[in-house]
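Notes from the pairing session

We agreed to fold both candidates in a single pass and log them together. This is the raw record for the first candidate, unedited. Please don't reformat it; downstream parsing expects exactly this layout.

Candidate A
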Amino acid sequence: PATKAMAKEMLPVVDKPLIQYAVEEAVAAGIEQVIFVTGRGKRSIEDHFDHQDGLESQLLAKGKDDLARVYREVSDMAEVIYVRQKQPLGLGHAVWCARHAVGDEPFAVILPDDLMDAEPGAIGRMKAAYEASGASQLAVEPVDPADVGSYGVIDPGPFNGETYPVRGLVEKPAPAVAPSNQSVIGRYILSPKVFDPLSKGGAGAGGEIQLTDALQALITDFGEALQAYPFTGARFDCGSKLGYLKAQIEFGLRRGEFGSELADYLRQRLTETAADNGAQPVSQR
């Protein structure tokens, strides 16, 4: 219900929307141009990264220079291009919609639902791996084998200390036939060659044009190398209610202006909950 009338990418974690965390990760990796693939009901994304001169002027007039500066920095952090995906036909289709803006260059794909907390960021590390190897990079993370049917899953080769060579990919496999439990998560560095299989527009799992299928075609039909980068930070799946709540708590605890007060509140609530359940309170962060 929270996203019935607003873009899910604009859901805030503490005081910034998910999409801003994604752009900040891209900018930290040295990416200067960001292409937003948007659809119906996502105009708020464009507004968020646009200048709001009237608001900034009001803040300056009230002596709130720091807040005006923050708003200006959001607008100026990257060059932005907006591309419309007229129908929600899948991630592969969304990437295909951006082909003219991307051109013949390697590019990153960032899914804002996955708020990935690491320093340096995942995209920065994967960009370095692409530049060193020339192989497209997929971020992966192990999941419970029972949950592989919710992800794209790789068939990994031997780990070389930094990445796995990817021998194949399967979108949402049944647990009994999944090649591994290494699931693809929301970060990619891709060769523009991926647009060749995407141009065929074939529907895959769920009747959608799957990016996973195009990546598999890069291996089998085009002889392209793919590597899987094991993500080692904290990933918050903000497409789920629990993951979103965990992100709020984790990022809230870090805030100097109220983090310690939030920690005290959480300890109090844990103690009260334990008492209500007749259990001994457990010391928590």
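Candidate B (folded immediately after A)
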Amino acid sequence: MRFLALYLILLVSANVARADDTVFKVGVTTRDFTPVEPYDWRGARTHVLRVMIWYPAAAEASEEPQWIGPPFVPYFSAGSAARDAAPAAGSKHPLVLLSHGAGGTAAGIAWLGTALAAHGFVAVAVNHPGNNALEDFTVEGFSLWWLRAVDLSVVLDAMLADKTFGSLIDPARIGAAGHSAGGYTVIAAAGGITDPAQLEAFCRSPIADALCRPPPEASGMREKRLARLSSDPDFRQRYERAGQSYRDPRIRAALAMAPGLVPMFTEESLNAISLPIAIISGDADEIAPSASNAEALARQIPHATLKLVPHAGHYVFFGTCTMLGRMMVRTACRDPDGVDRDAVHAETIGLALDFFAASLR
């Protein structure tokens, strides 16, 4: 049944692509990019930007199922790809930068990365320092959210300079997509400017919602942030840089999936975003409610499009869970009754393919 579900995702995504779209074998590989120092590592132990890359592979590549979790008992599917395969020869490809949610990983967005690569895109996802599940979370990683946009810009620099991928990427066709805090990240990279005081005010107001109740992975981070702001001048100085613009003008289109932290964006900056923005969210999102996040973005960004998936929650944009994953990672693997995660993925893949094909011509 699992392989049938994966086949249906690929079949639907192929059908929603344009008639002249070539379907490629998918390659996957990793890189450790080292930015020019000094770099704000947000308290993380690892001082490299660790990325996963999905790309159109040579026709002779042999794809295999990819998984997330313990090697013999994985929790999530990561699609099907040929590890370290030779790239497909031919024309240059558009690039889509991918940003995971708070406490997630680059691999967690593989379901979208593999689909993009199968249809001619190079996709690269970065593990954001201090805010990914590969190592301990840090206060900075859960406070200095705007620096995630800097990570995307540095990864873009590195991809364009990479000996293998640089020559395969069309630098005039760059997009970005992200889930949850990753949705916030791509909007920041598109020109959204952050004012953390706005989120504090929202959470003290009568319209405060579930966004103001931090998920388990962020438990206690607010109190630690406030303590650091009062006792650590260096942290306070870095925190005060929130109001700068982190826009990367090379990014020409952005897709935000179940975006969070939206009340932090200034209305003026959202009104000034001129590039195409697509937004998709579940209308039953229990972490980043659509009214204060996805719908608010759609109202304030000119020409943004919004798709609300009926009854879907926040974690529907995670990878498809294995049986063990549904037992061990219940929060991330549980969808509301009647919601088919594979079908939502297929719908989102179709939206992404159409959106980026039209926006990155």
